[in-house]
Amino acid sequence: MLDSYFKITARGSTVAREVRGGVVTFFTMAYIVALNPLIIGLAKDGDGKFLGGDGSHPNLAMIAAATALIAGVLTILMGVVANFPLALATGLGLNTFVAVGIASKMTWADAMGLIVLEGLIITVLVLTGFRTAVFRAVPTQLKIAISVGIGLFIALIGLVDSGFVRRTGSGPVPVTLGDGGTLVGWPIIVFAFGLFLTVALMVKKVKGALLIGIACATVAAVAIESAFKIGPNFIAPDKVNPKGWGLNVPTIPTKVVASPDFGLLGHFNLFGSFGKITAVSAILIVFTLLLADFFDTMGTMTAIGHEAGLVDRDGNVPDAGRILLVDSIAAAAGGAAGISSNTSYIESASGVGEGARTGLASVVTGLCFLLTTFLAPLVAVIPYEAATPALVIVGFLMMTQIKSIDWEDLGIAIPAFLTIILMPFTYSISVGIGAGFVSHVVIRIVQGRRKELHPLLLLISGLFMVYFLTSPINAWLS
């Protein structure tokens, strides 16, 4: 039954590979259950209240429970409806924008209402076929460039989250090696151990290399923390332990099971924001969320499709409409649950690297998230440093597609180059895609090859110009 429904054999996979891939994807993105509460749970809204409870104090457990629940339900939906190895959870970057740029101007319920509104609009765009049509209007080689750029982006995420690369905070160079140019602390050793172990297992063609690497690195981290009591990287807002663990401190939990509180569900006010800020400001916020969500997911879907070998010769993903529909519903569901927009995660590529090719992997990932609502203390054992080697390896796997780009055609080569480098340099998939689209359109017009440009690509490039100029436009209108 599983084989028939998910087309496991037809896609050259096995149930065991799908299960392994689903578990690996979960391990590489489980951090969101702990991180999302820290981002939106410690920020106050325009009324000076925290999200959850009575608003008088942070309620991180409630946010964590809702984060895991919605991620689990939507990821299972992606597997069952779209049969694609793609997991969803609260979007990083979007949640920071919500906490800092939106909720600070209104109540949390009002801010979540804008998220729901954006999700409903993008769902309509999918149902009308517009979102899928835009995806098909993009040249094949630009889709490959998007995939490669995301590969570099995900590798940088792994290096930054592990502490191997860190922000300098001053000077002309924004990032540096380790702490001030030096690798320090046991967590870095755990990262290096996990990375080299995974590479060795891959070279030996051992099945489950990424999963084994994460598990062994976690065991090593727990042993090191037990012996040396290293503690977290961030001790207080103004105090940092450069030799500490990045997020989760890998200690053996005193309890494994905890009862979740889902009281945050339904915490939104659909049009409440229009009474707190001007209609123009609200519309610009929704437009910004819409464009970021629209193209982040398109890029992620393209990258996963290429890595899994699930694209046709034009670079299109079969049943893209179903994938985009579930993702659009996820955006609205995240707002309705009070935890910010949910979106597709590029960390799903780690599961594909482990062999996942079908939606069964997503079902496994989703079930792991649902278990996390009760097993949050156990998930908190896995530190960044144990999970991030998988992201670096996946970045390498996705980088190998670069050979398919025609570097002799400047109309493709320059946009591909900008797409690839700007994703990691700006820490944004949307910026890379936008720069690639706009530069491709400009170069083709200069070359006198305007007829090669799809009308939808011209439209989207114009919208991206508005996106890039949102701040001065907003200031001018104000």
UniProtKB/TrEMBL annotation:
Kindly provide the name given to this protein in its UniProt entry: Unannotated protein
Protein's UniProt keywords contain Transport: yes
Q: Where in the cell is it found?
A: Endomembrane system
Q: How does it sit in the membrane?
A: Multi-pass membrane protein
Q: Name one GO cellular component term.
A: endomembrane system
Similarity comment? Belongs to the nucleobase:cation symporter-2 (NCS2) (TC 2.A.40) family. Azg-like subfamily.
Keywords, comma-separated and alphabetical: Membrane, Transmembrane, Transmembrane helix, Transport
| InterPro entries referenced in this protein's UniProt entry, alphabetically | Azg-like, NCS2
Q: Which residues cross the membrane?
A: 21-40, 60-81, 86-105, 111-130, 142-164, 184-203, 210-228, 270-292, 367-398, 410-443, 455-477
Under Gene Ontology molecular function, one entry of this record is: purine nucleobase transmembrane transporter activity
| Source organism (scientific name) | freshwater metagenome
